[in-house]
Amino acid sequence: MIAVIQKFGKLGRSGQDTLIVMTGVALTFALSSEFDLAEHVTAWLLTYEYAQLDEVPLTLFVFVLFSAWFSQRRIREIHAEIERRQLTEAQLLSSQQLYKTLFDGDLTGNVVLDTNGNIGMHNRAFDRICRPQNSERNARKLFDFDWPEFVTQLQHHREINFNKLHICRPDSLPCYVGARFVYVPAEKNNSAQIHGYLVDMTEQCLVELDLERTLKENRVLARHAMQVQEQERKYIASEIHDETGQYLTAIRMDALALQKSTPAQANVIAVRIASNTQHVQQSIRVLIKHLRPPALDSLGLIGAVERLVNDWQKLNPKVECHLQLDTSDRVLHEDINIVAFRVVQEALTNITRHAQASEIWVDIHIVTRQGASLLQIEIRDNGLGMDTTQSTEGVGLVGMRERIESQQGSFKLMSGLQAGTMITGLIPLQEEQRKKLPRTSLSPSASGVNDYATS
């Protein structure tokens, strides 16, 4: 008996109900067989023949059959309804999954806020663009405007667009977005919401800022170039007037006096004319050297740079210079020679003015990148360095960059406060014939290099 009860307890609800029905049917049959209940009922019904009660059993039997048929149809309908609901739930789940995939996969940063700026829901793009703090789920500090005033305006206009909105990211990295905010009024059980849609425009804005900075630098450089041109003209005019002009006047006067002089005087005048002519020649040489370094034509780039650095070190004897110069016996184009020479010259000038360095390195050699030959120029010092994030009013760096980029090259500056400075220039070389020339010997103090910069 105990085993039957335990087994009965383990059955489910439907099994228990089936067992109860079967037990009741079996018990009824047993009692009817024992006490002849059917005969007693039939005899009792015959006493009420006028009421046709003897037809009740057949009627009840038919009623039971129809009840079973009715129950079977209802069961089928219930199963169909269950299947329909399961299909609907599956479709709803699939729709939710698709919505979540589209919402999270959208490149636009989407966010749902309340009127206090609390973040209710957002996608991964919003996280990537704004990087909100996990510990603080409020977006008011992200946006660069007065939040209460913004909410008031949004409630009035229903929608506000920003072409360029600065995002105050917690990591302090620059971030600019195009944004649209839509106000959704409160409904029944839902409070008012603000839907935000952000498009990342940081790269575009940084390029615009860089172009604006470059344009400003180019204007400064153009103004400086005109000033330098006028200074050069003034210098040349002064040299010609003060040096060459007066000696030529003296030569002209001696030539006129020579016509009326005696043989003894002619000898003295001739010596004077020769001396004045020598002074004129020396002045012209100084002027030519000022306009263009003659060592470039006679010694080439390597020799000219070596002489430039040696002359510079004579003026700065406390600075140790290291040179590493090698162009692999290649004859470079004249434009590349003058650009490389002027870059080194300007870098040395900047080191003298600003670096306070004890060592400098100058490295010029040919490298190969992606199958193309390039002339690499590196100038480095161990001086004070500079903050590259701050703009400078000088034109030395801008001039070097413009010279290198005029040859379709690239210019790079690396520096930090108390960390020295390095400039690197890469200039593509044209295909020219190699000539076997003896390599320029390196000076004893020569070795390697890199950069500096700022005027």
TrEMBL record:
The keyword Kinase applies. Coiled coil: none annotated. Residues 440-455 have a biased composition (Polar residues). GO terms for molecular function: kinase activity. Keywords: Kinase, Transferase, Two-component regulatory system. Residues 434-455 are annotated as: Disordered. This is Histidine kinase. InterPro entries: HATPase_C_sf, HATPase_dom, His_kinase_dom, PAS-like_dom_sf, Sensor_HK_TwoCompSys, Sig_transdc_His_kin_sub3_dim/P. CDD domains: HATPase_UhpB-NarQ-NarX-like (cd16917). Residues 342-431 form the Histidine kinase domain. The lineage of its organism: Bacteria, Pseudomonadati, Pseudomonadota, Betaproteobacteria, Nitrosomonadales. It comes from Methylophilus flavus. It comes from the Bacteria. Gene3D superfamilies: 1.20.5.1930, Histidine kinase-like ATPase, C-terminal domain (3.30.565.10).
